[in-house]
Amino acid sequence: MTSANDDLKALVRTIPDFPKPGIQFRDVTTLLLDGRGFGLAVERLAATVGEAPDLVAGVEARGFILGAALARELGCGLLLIRKDGKLPGATIAEDYALEYGTDRLAMHVDACSAGAKVLLADDLIATGGTALAAARLIRRAGGHVVGARFLIDLPDLGGAEALRAEGIDVASLIEFEGD
């Protein structure tokens, strides 16, 4: 699917040595600034989804943007998965590993009903730690993760494969080799 999306790939800016030396940061904000490109990206991602889910789960923060647009396109609700401590009311949370330490994601306990079909959405899949934590949260709430959609995949980092190993259907529009 990636070669068909070279027009979108051209809209992604690469910032070398951010956030640290040797990292090639893939900045989707330049794609989001292009109204036509953003619209095409949402349409193309939505076209990869078979049966519409009950919810699209947007992972903080750029996943909120993509998740909201996909939810609108697919005619379903939006589930927010946030950094711990950002949601009012009762939440459940899940720790996940970072390169140096851990972080924690949370969602409202009543945001996902048992049996709900949920599609994960985020701007980029790298190592998969954040997406896997989000999937665990949804499953703990009784939801069924029907897939995960990303604008960008960094396949050398293995995140998409890690999600597939958990039985999650994964699709992305653009791939960048390397880090």
Describe the structure concisely.
The chain is α/β, with parallel strands linked by helices and 179 residues long. Helix content is 30%, strand content 34%. Strand 7 (117-125), helix 5 (129-140) and strand 8 (144-153) form a beta-alpha-beta unit.
Could you describe the largest sheet, including whether it forms a barrel? 7 strands, mixed
Could you tell me how far the N terminus lies from the C terminus, measured between alpha carbons in angstroms? 20 Å
Order of SSEs:
HEEHHEHEEEEHEHE
- Given as residue ranges, the uncertain stretches (5+ residues, pLDDT < 50) are none
- Count of beta strands: 9
Family: Belongs to the purine/pyrimidine phosphoribosyltransferase family.
Pathway: Purine metabolism; AMP biosynthesis via salvage pathway; AMP from adenine: step 1/1
Domain Phosphoribosyltransferase: 32-153
GO molecular function, one term: adenine phosphoribosyltransferase activity
